Amino acid sequence: xxxxxxxxxxxxxxxxxxxxxxxxxxxxxxxxxxxxxxxxxxxxxxxxxxxxxxxxxxxxxxxxxxxxxxxxxxxxxxxxxxxxxxxxxxxxxxxxxxxxxxxxxxxxxxxxxxxxxxxxxxxxxxxxxxxxxxxxxxxxxxxxxxxxxxxxxxxxxxxxxxxxxxxxxxxxxxxxxxxxxxxxxxxxxxxxxxxxxxxxxxxxxxxxxxxxxxxxxxxxxxxxxxxxxxxxxxxxxxxxxxxxxxxxxxxxxxxxxxxxxxxxxxxxxxxxxxxxxxxxxxxxxxxxxxxxxxxxxxxxxxxxxxxxxxxxxxxxxxxxxxxxxxxxxxxxxxxxxxxxxxxxxxxxxxxxxxxxxxxxxxxxxxxxxxxxxxxxxxxxxxxxxxxxxxxxxxxxxxxxxxxxxxxxxxxxxxxxxxxxxxxxxxxxxxxxxxxxxxxxxxxxxxxxxxxxxxxx
Length: 456
Ligand SMILES: *Cc1c(COP(=O)(O)O)cnc(C)c1O
Fold this sequence. Notes:
With 456 residues, the chain is an alpha/beta fold. Helices cover 40% and strands 16% of the residues. The protein has 2 domains: 36-67 and 113-233, Rossmann fold (3-Layer(aba) Sandwich), CATH 3.40.50; 80-110 and 240-444, 3-Layer(aba) Sandwich (Rossmann fold). The chain has a 7-stranded mixed β-sheet, with helices on both faces. A 4-stranded parallel β-sheet has the order 8-7-6-9, sandwiched between helices. A two-stranded antiparallel ribbon has the order 2-3.
């Protein structure tokens, strides 16, 4: 260990390849199933939604996938990102633990999402696509994709979950600044949105509903494709630039991690940080414990079921085997909008099922408390999503204080909270509530899981 506070890498240290963990798993994850035939999806089935290059990355057996120079060139705007030791937080907690955070909030859109938005826009543009549709929860993915589309002259049309559309008008503005069109979801523009509005005119929306709308809007048009900001294998793959850099930086600190902590919505920032470390763990070189943190309001790992389910509310997407609360589950509005997804990455779900990492759930007030403590010591205001990882990090550092353990804790600070200050105001005013779904709501949503026997 040395006494540095930040380790910054030179631009030349931006990774040249993404790391594909599929190549190193003891068994492959179960395949996605076609929603009509319920047989494994073929690459052609996905062609109306994604460009062929990304479909190939979804199932590639290559351990490493080269990052196109054009993408590395956009990455240069903010990568490599810093790895910082949270000395002031450690001091405030009085812990013997050493806490390191990989900060992705310095990117153009303020989170890790641009790491995948840029290659997704690039591969679509390469294939001659003119327009991308997508959904966004808190607005982070939408603003990342809007920025990426601006790099490659693509049109960008975004369905934003109603609850966030109303709570975060400035995220909406940012997407428009980058040139995107933004609709609240559910919207009357699509069949899926209209149906939901007819049943519940005041619906706060959900990521599942917004995905249905964006997928519907992409369908049937040759020059349009759909982009997803989390959950899929190619998204997790692109995010491994975080972990590859962090491996080198933590080594420069003279440290190896004892615990790696990340928040999970669909799982991409957590996977992006920990996959390269897990590769080293599987090779026997290090032995960190790895832990996902999810919101108590949307606890897919800790209270969901490992089963085939749709990725969206309307059942348009392939069925994926994942930890799910049921595609009809609409999480209560919480301020970590990016974590309000009923399912989880199928790849991470498979790995969780194999026992390769653990998971815990945290309520939003303890997360905002940790977010405030972090802001007041380290200076960066965390987004409510990574505040979940910080709550776990703080709890672990305090456990170390009792046991005297000098653990090295590594966490992903995947975005800043400058667009979430209304939420911090709420917390400071004392009118934020902790919410966790009653078991019967989860049971009810799980009754709607689709059948998996092949049809016909
Ligand atoms: C989107 C987002 C998340 C949740 O998505 P993951 O795929 O689980 O990373 C978490 N934090 C921030 C800042 C986000 O933008």
